[in-house]
Amino acid sequence: MPELKPTEDTLMGALGIEIIEITPDEVVAEMPVHAATHQPFGLLHGGASVALAETAASVGTFNQIDPETEAAVGLEINANHLRSKADGKVTATAAPLHKGQSTMVWEIRITDEEDALICVSRCTVAIKKRTS
User: Fold this and answer.
1) From what superkingdom does this record's organism come (predicted)?
2) Which of 3, 26, 30, 54 is catalytic?
């Protein structure tokens, strides 16, 4: 598996996203629900959920490419926010629906500590040839 670079100075670091597990068929990531991931009304920001979902899909794709010659970049994402959350943590579980040579499509389910579904997302990740 390719090694991820440090995330402290990235969006992952700012939001507190941690990768818990990576396999060819699943990525599990966690994110705290607190001030940094809230919208102004004290609830989990939909954009933070989308960032968590795309992170899981991108990491899953990165795990399956040659990082010396290829890069994984988000191409499209959608999300349905089904339940609000004010504190605690959320867990994203991403599973590939399609593993192609130029794109991968992932389904991401974001749940809370009681396994209640908070958000469901689908993300297409492009696999690009590195130019430098």
Assistant:
1) Bacteria
2) 54
pTM across the whole model: 0.94
Residue 7 has pLDDT above 80, yes or no: no
pLDDT digits (tens, 9 = 90+) for 36-46: 999 999 999 99
> For the chain, which residues make up each domain, given as ranges?
11-129
26 is catalytic: no
Residues contacting 10, CB < 8 A, separation 6+: none
Cα distance from N-terminal residue to C-terminal residue, the chain: 21
Q: Which of 96, 33, 9 is nearest to 59 (CA)?
A: 96
| CATH number among 3.10.129.10, 3.40.30.10, 3.40.50.300, 3.40.50.920, domain 11-129 | 3.10.129.10
